[in-house]
Structure prediction request, 78 residues.
Amino acid sequence: MTNSEFIYWLTGYLKLTDDSYLDEKQITIIKNHANLVQTVEVDLSESIRHFIADLEAELSQLAKIPIESVRKRAIFCN
Prediction:
């Protein structure tokens, strides 16, 4: 998976979920897909790295992250 493909996947993932929040399991799914980028392109784009770091930081403080917050931040991955 390339950086661009990850962004398309993430956009679809966030649009299709009916959940109001993302939990640790869902964040792990996002991180695992980001790891797929590293197997193909070696490095994640800086914007994706920041997005993942923000999710991890917020998850360390909250048990669930509001989906709207995640959707707004995902726009900046492009």
